[in-house]
Amino acid sequence: MDTLLMALIIITGTVCTLTPIYEFKTKNYKWTYNVLYGATLVMILAVFGALYELNKILLDLSPFSLIEGILSAFKMVMFGIVFNMLIKFVHKIFKPRKKREHNKKKDVDIVAETILSLEKTLVNIHQCSTQSIEQLSTKVLNCFNSKFSSLEVATKSLEETTNHNLEAINDNVVSTKSELLSKFQMLNNNHVISQSIEILTTSINSIEKTIKSMKESQIELLQSNKNLEQNQVELLQSSKNLEQSQVELLRSSESMEQNQTELLHINTNMEQSQVELVQNSKNLTQIIDIVLEDINVSQKLIHSYLSKMVELNNTSQNTNYTETINTLFEKYDATLKELVENYTNKLKQETIPHKTSLQENLLNSLLKMLNSNNISNCLNINSIYDINKFILEQYTQELNELIVHNQENNEIIKN
Known about the structure:
Blueprint: H1 2-26, H2 35-59, H3 63-94, H4 107-187, H5 191-250, H6 254-314, H7 321-349, H8 357-370, H9 384-414
Helix pairs in contact: 1-2, 1-3, 2-3, 3-4, 5-6, 6-9
């Protein structure tokens, strides 16, 4: 748009300037009087172009567009003024003249006056241009200063954020490096495996010691049976003595007969208690035999469990190996503790109505055995085989799955 306006100004000014000269040479004056309208049109186009450039400056306040707009507006105004004055000057010189009168000035004076007016206009134009250039330079400097200050603030903030981000990245790198080193040390640490194998070996040794202690307890029970038999003999002897005392008491008064009947009742109760003690001793011996058999079975299962652990140790490790071993031992210990508590509660609940001191001693010895720290003493006598078999089969199944998973990982690494 600005180029179109500039072209219109130049074309109109050139045509209006050359027309009076051409008609002066040809002496055919047709458009000479109308060229003044062209001078006015040129000035109007120049003012319209300057307003258009100012509108563009207001829409985009960037420094480069500001400079370019002001220069193009100034150029249009200058071209408009120059062509306006040039058209008027040419029209004044080359217009058709009437007969000169003597009182009019000569042509030389007119030319001199026009030259003076042109000089004045040129001086005014120069002053206006210098003032506009100074104002433009001050505005440009102010704009550039504001832009540079905002740029400095932005660069400072950018520098601070980059320093902060670099510090955060360094901290993250250091923390991740330490975590990776700790994890690598955990993966290369075989101390946990050796501890697990030592725990299993100690558990097997404790089972063997428990078997020995159970055998000793069986010997003690046999000794207690002998003591029971001796007590029976003593009781028979005492019964004979009581019978003799009965004969003597029958010869006495009726009060002695009542005492004799009470003694007979006591004797019958003692015989019943003796029969119950013998039956209890037999049941205890049978229970101890069952316990010994089940301990042998659990020992075999633990040996197989240890072999699976050794086989797992020979395979390649993954990150879940230590956690899996620890969880297996925690489950096993929790199950054994639960079995111990159930069995002790059962023994405490299954009380006999008339317990002798020998029965109390047997029950206390069993409770001491169950409260000991040996693994085999923590087994439930009524269901030891089924529970141990179920628990150890689950552990062996989990170990087999872990071995298969490690073998698959090895094959993937080889491929």
